Model the fold of this input.
Amino acid sequence: MLRDIILCLFIGYIFGCFQTGYIYGKCHGIDIRQYGSGNAGTTNTLRVLGKKAGYITYLGDALKAIIAILLVKYLVYGQWLVPSLSFQLLLAYTGLGVALGHNYPFYLKFKGGKGIAVTSGVMLALDLRIGLIGIIGFLILFYATRYVSVGSLFMSLAFPVCVLILYPGQWHLFAVSVIFWLMAWMRHRENIKRLMNGNENRFERKKKS
Done:
């Protein structure tokens, strides 16, 4: 089992190192990490390069998690039937590897994104119910508060809560989902401080002309 976990983490990490925002920025002549918040994820790309860039970055980062998990599920292990819970655990570790590669890409001096788009992709690939709860909750909180960070923090917290409810007694799987939550909150620690101080950046609604 340990060998399989290491393999899944490695495969996931390789996929996670595909930095959509960084690559998109380079195609447009900039290093996205030199602008805005210095982050290579969706939100900073959206703020710096616009909606199109943000949408592309989100899709790229979410899809790399989904593709990595599907690769492990269907090609590495050939599990075409409904997966067992132990197999579900290996898929979760694959997703964790993607998040690690996205947050800490070795070739960018371990300076990547915050992993929220990746986490949404992992949640969708593992269990569609969990993914939809996370994404819908994110959208509701974002449009209510205009804070991306609030929606992101909710999504990461929804992961272990949903696993706890939908997979009772599966403590190993729950532990992996808690790691996603802890990583996300650690990567958002500056956002949390700004939220507490009332000076977090927000997306203002455009006024109708």
About this structure: The chain has ten helices and no strands. The radius of gyration is 17 Å.
